[in-house]
Amino acid sequence: MNHDTKDNGVHQENSSKAERCNQSVLTAGVRTTREIMNMNPLWVSPDTTLEKAAYLMGDRNVGAVVVCRDGEVTGIFTERDLLRRSASRRKWAATPVSEFMTRDPFTISAGQPWTTGFDLMGKRRVRHLPVIDEGRLVGMLSVRDLMEQRNRQLEELVGQRTEELQAKNRKLREQDRLMQYELDLAGKIQRQLLPAIPPDFSSLKLSVAYLPLECVSGDFYDFTILPDGRLGILIADACGHGVPAAFVSLMAKAAFEAHARGIPSPAEVLAAMSRHSAYLIDTDYFITMCCAVVDPRTLTLTYASAGHPPPLRCGFATGAVETLHTNGAMIGLMPEPAFEERSVQLEAGDTVLFYTDGILDCRDPAGEIFGRSRLTAFLRRHGESSIQGLMDSLQEELGSFHGSGPMDDDITCIGLKAAGEAPKVIPPR
Questions:
Q1: Are 334 and 277 in contact (CB under 8 A)?
Q2: What whole-number distance in Å separates Cα of residue 102 and Cα of residue 47?
Q3: How far apart are CA 357 and CA 108, in angstroms?
Q4: What are the pLDDT digits (tens) for 83-119?
Q5: Which CATH number fits domain 8-152: 3.40.250.10, 1.10.10.10, 3.40.120.10, 3.10.580.10?
Q6: pLDDT of residue 18
């Protein structure tokens, strides 16, 4: 390949720049020229004939020979020099190599990083660089050497990055495992705080379906038996799901335990919950609740709602489904909301469903929601079933509607059926 005569000023400037960055390159782990060069370069004296030089190059399978006098580089002779210049002479075999060589070739010192040689070859369009140390030839750097080194460096870099990624992945997997363990533990604790079995009365039968979307849930429910023997029911849903919603729901449950359990009026329960959950007003979270009190002796149901989906009552005698609406703002939406309280007289065989909006918002694969109309139709079809049978059928219906995969939100449903038998109260376990 053609070797233009070097510009000493440009070469010295390049060398100076290379020397200035040499130390930082070495500390970064880049190999020096000495580490990758051919340490046994082919060299000849200036008076060596072209025929002999060409023979040596073919024998060693190299593309260039360094021309030296007393160990000092005076020129370089390449295949391109031979092809270009020999074509102009008929008799060239006995010509000294000094007449065909490129004089004062670009060189590189043994201590410079190999990347300097790579840059120099690219800028000067040369394929070979004699390597010198204290002014004497110690090796040859070729494009092949540089490409092999570049490939090795890329392979080493890929290997290093792969090891780093594998180490990070192992760390992430361990963090995920620990996080999942903590979430599983939190979910287990949360479920233990919920009533495992609802209270049992001879005149009232209850069943609960609790289906958290994740390990922890923003839904919660509770039962309490008031001093006069009536049953209190609370169902609530903190906005969202997962850890933040679960945290809010646990705080709300703690507030219910401390300040509202035992209050005979559902509206007063919600008012107390609102007062002691005022911290939610300055956050992006709120809670919907429905509170009800049912008398197992008279089967009178009194209820109030804080922005919660209204309960549904299915009459045993008529099969009609009634929506039990009341007015009331969500907990955490305003400082002192008012809650409307209403009562309804249940008849033997009547069924009431209290539920969170996870049921209404359940979607099929096409994106259509289950909605209140489907829930109403379901209750109308299964109103005569036992309360446990009805709850089992509801879960099957939701699963069939939604299809495979997780639900879209936490689901909680409390079913109550008026049995109409003699009153016999069995406290909750």
A1: no
A2: 14
A3: 76
A4: 776 666 667 788 898 888 888 888 889 888 888 888 8
A5: 3.10.580.10
A6: 41
CA pair distance 128, 209, nearest whole angstrom:
80
**423 and 296 Cβ atoms separated by less than 8 Å:** yes
Structure tokens at 383: 């109103």
Kindly report the CATH class assigned to 194-426: alpha beta
**Is a pLDDT exceeding 80 seen at residue 27?**
no
286: its two tokens = 């709120």
**Contact between residue 217 and residue 197 where contact means Cβ atoms under 8 Å apart:** no
Confidence of residue 13 (pLDDT cuts 50, 70, 90): very low
Placement of tokens 């945290």 in the chain: 247
Say how many CA atoms lie within 13 Å of 258 toward its Cβ.
10
**pLDDT tens digit string along 382-399?**
999 999 999 999 999 999
Residues 332, 306: Cα–Cα separation, whole Å: 10
Asked if 60 and 42 touch (Cβ cutoff 8 Å), the reply is yes
Question: Do 312 and 352 form a contact (C-beta atoms < 8 A)?
Answer: yes
And the tokens for 140?
Answer: 């040859």
Element (H, E) at 138: strand 136-142
If one counts every other C-beta atom within 10 angstroms of the C-beta of residue 173, the result is 10
43-44 and 64-69 as β-strands: parallel, antiparallel, unpaired?
parallel
Model confidence pLDDT, tens digit, residues 254-264: 888 888 888 99
* Helix (H) or strand (E) segment spanning residue 302: strand 300-306
- Give the CA count within 13 Å in the CB-facing half-sphere of 99: 14
At 45-65, the pLDDT tens digits run 999 998 899 889 888 888 899
Residues in the chain: 429
Domain boundaries, the chain: 8-152, 194-426
Look up residue 142 and give its two tokens. 């070729």
DSSP SS3 for 390: helix
User: What's the burial of 328, exposed, middle or buried (CB within 10 Å: 0-12/13-18/19+)?
Assistant: buried
Tokens representing 111 are 């201590």
